[in-house]
Amino acid sequence: MVKICCIGAGYVGGPTMAVIALKCPSVEVAVVDISVPRITAWNSDQLPIYEPGLDDVVKQCRGKNLFFSTDVEKHVREADIVFVSVNTPTKTRGLGAGKAADLTYWESAARMIADVSVSDKIVVEKSTVPVKTAEAIEKILMHNSKGIKFQILSNPEFLAEGTAIEDLFYPDRVLIGGRETPEGFKAVKALKDVYAQWVPEDRILTTNLWSAELTKLAANAFLAQRISSVNAMSALCEATGANVSEVSYAVGKDSRIGPKFLNSSVGFGGSCFQKDILNLVYICECNGLPEVAEYWKQVIKINDYQKTRFVNRIVSSMFNTVSNKKIAVLGFAFKKDTGDTRETPAIDVCKGLLGDKARISIYDPQVTEEQIQRDLTMNKFDWDHPIHLQPMSPTTVKQVSVAWDAYAATKDAHGICLLTEWDEFKTLDYERIFENMQKPAFVFDGRNVVDAEKLRKIGFIVYSIGKPLDQWLKDMPALA
Ligand SMILES: NC(=O)c1ccc[n+]([C@@H]2O[C@H](COP(=O)([O-])OP(=O)(O)OC[C@H]3O[C@@H](n4cnc5c(N)ncnc54)[C@H](O)[C@@H]3O)[C@@H](O)[C@H]2O)c1
Ligand SMILES: O=c1ccn([C@@H]2O[C@H](COP(=O)(O)OP(=O)(O)O[C@H]3O[C@H](CO)[C@@H](O)[C@H](O)[C@H]3O)[C@@H](O)[C@H]2O)c(=O)[nH]1
Fold first, then answer.
1. How many domains does one find in the chain?
2. Per the count of CB atoms within 10 A, which of 327, 362, 411, 468 is most buried?
3. Residues 422, 467: one domain?
4. Which residues are the active-site residues?
């Protein structure tokens, strides 16, 4: 029986390994983590992450060929294949701070693998890492190996949160990079055999190590670039009377462009896009390519601009001040169908509104009050882009409340901000909401989820990103 161990039981390690266990009954999978609460949750009925379909997959395999454990060393020692799926956040201090990937967790995992191993192993980079990381990892493993042989593979993960199980069941592609040596090819084949149990052969791509590592950063940069492109167009649409949905639909009909990932929004969030692009920018700079670095930096700058533009629009529409006004924030997660709030645009929008002394009432179906308070008080790292905002003082925190549903959040509010595209926000009783709000009642739709015309008929003043503006909004132009 092939034994797999995955270091890191997070958003990637947990679902990915659960699907491997489900699809490969002859493989024994252990997911290990240093975080006791995380592992306890994986072993309970309340999994540590919310992901549609995940509970069902875990229930089918847990205790059979899928195990969650804090005994990291034991499971690594016994494994034939060790996936490393630890976090690789942006460095917050030292060389490359604000851009480079922090490989502390990866390095400590690699040292531990070298320390405890007593048999040859395939070590798989599952985390997103800078191109050439495998070379550094190889050095750590070889210099500490006591004669044991390691083969390093790069097998980046392309799942998106909220659709992780679907993405893992039916991936567009699985990418495996390895050394172009007989041992390297053998290791690539061993991993390919695992995926081949449910992924069609023509979807399993094999490349050299550096191509696989760089493809992950490139894919995220291309995806984020599409969103920044459509968001840049949304500003121009508002200025000219064009409708961004019509423009992106017609643009996407060109088969060379395609229809996906062209939804204008308040800005992209999530733990990956910004981090990975910053990482790419840093790699370009380190390789003496400042023009290429500058090109990719613009994707983040437009994203920041979009969030700032949204806040400015709210403030200017409401007579240039939101001081002491109640703003209901519907949705705090960075996208629907996840409870994840990492780099959610909601943090920047809320901080922007609080900076103008608004009172905020937040509702999200999957994000806890504790998480929201933590996100709003956390300091953001310093970086040379302008969205940098100070952490909130204890008095500011008092201006934030968390509601248990959308009706409670919007009661007596002056305005509503829709920041996550949860399906339930489409079908709320907006007449009831309107009745219970201060007048004039505003809706600022950061995800284009509501039917603006219907809401206008009820009496709302509606701002939808990239759509033709109400006369009210035209009369109150947003300040840059
Ligand atoms: N979240 C996503 O959707 C996604 C998708 C594709 C790729 N990625 C990449 O995958 C990697 C993991 O992302 P994530 O979202 O799962 O992160 P995460 O923070 O949810 O999980 C990482 C886990 O690793 C554990 N860990 C850290 N060091 C450890 C060590 N030395 N030993 C044992 N456990 C250790 C942490 O306790 C944590 O539980 C990152 O590089 C990320 O960029 C993420
Ligand atoms: O047309 C769109 C599509 C997405 N978004 C936003 O973009 C962000 C990221 O969304 P998405 O890419 O769906 O979720 P992630 O879980 O961040 O997944 C991305 O990041 C992962 C981590 O690297 C990769 O594995 C995935 O392939 C990649 O899609 C979210 O805030 C979305 O609301 C838009 O604003 N408009």
1. 2
2. 327
3. yes
4. 272
pLDDT digit string (tens) for 364-376?
A: 999 999 999 999 9
Give the predicted TM-score (pTM) of the model: 0.95
List CB contacts of 149: < 8 A, sequence separation 6 or more. 120, 183
Average pLDDT over residues 320-327: 96
CB 159 less than 6 A from any atom of ligand 2: yes
Ligand 2 atom nearest 267 alpha carbon = 35
Angle between helices 54-61 and 13-23 (to 10 degrees): 50
- Same domain assignment for residues 436 and 344: yes
Residue 376, ligand 2, Cβ within 6 A: no
Domain range for 190 is: 2-199
Residue nearest to atom 18 of ligand 2 (CA): 160
Yes or no: say if 284 and 296 are a contact pair by the CB < 8 Å rule.
Answer: yes
| Predicted confidence (pLDDT) per residue in 92-109, tens digit | 888 998 899 999 999 999
157 CB near ligand 2 (under 6 Å): yes
Determine if ligand 2 sits within 6 Å of the CB of residue 85: no
283 CA to centre of ligand 1 in angstroms:
21
On the question of pLDDT at 384 being above 50, the answer is no
- Is 259 within the bounds of a domain? yes
Write down the pLDDT at residue 393: 63
The CATH code of the domain that includes 134 is 3.40.50.720
Return d(Cα 276, Cα 214) in angstroms, integer: 10
| Confidence tier at 383 by pLDDT (50, 70, 90) | very low
Ligand nearest to C-alpha 348: 2
